[in-house]
Write the structure tokens for this entry.
Amino acid sequence: MLKDIKHLTKDIEKMVLQGKAKAASKIQFSLQYRSPYWTGTFNAAWKVQKGTPVDPVKPRKENQGYRSGVRAPEAGPIIKTSLTEALYVGNETEYAGFVINRMRSLETAGLTSDQIFGNDSQENPRGISSIEFYEDLFTIGADTSPIPNDPEWYYYYIATEELVQDLDQAFKSVSLAQSEY
């Protein structure tokens, strides 16, 4: 049955909001899939949230070594908002800045580098030099896991067609039936 054209604006708004919600979920899933999983905490902490940016407040779960916490990515929730309300995708772990090679200052965080990275200033039990960012693990040849396996995996995702493809897929999945108008 044909719809009156007067409903077109509301229907387009509804489609945009559905596309926005699906895009956030798709981006969250992609970041889980692409992000490093060797700690078992980081890739599981991607979150979709409305209204305010996601704060990095969850501590890293300790594990017995690299890749001990591997798990399959899970699609995030479809969170609907208004056209004016922001929808954020972020990571809740305290060391999220470390993994994307950008960190808020240690003074702002109120932590020392030993507290963040677990380095023992007397003995250095990891047997490696002081690590400041994820890219430093590549320098020492550590076992790493992002897709692509590159220290700049996050910037690769947001600066290439990967992010645009996720947006396209999300918005293409929402459409008006051609016969409605």
User: Anything to note?
Assistant: The mean pLDDT is 79.
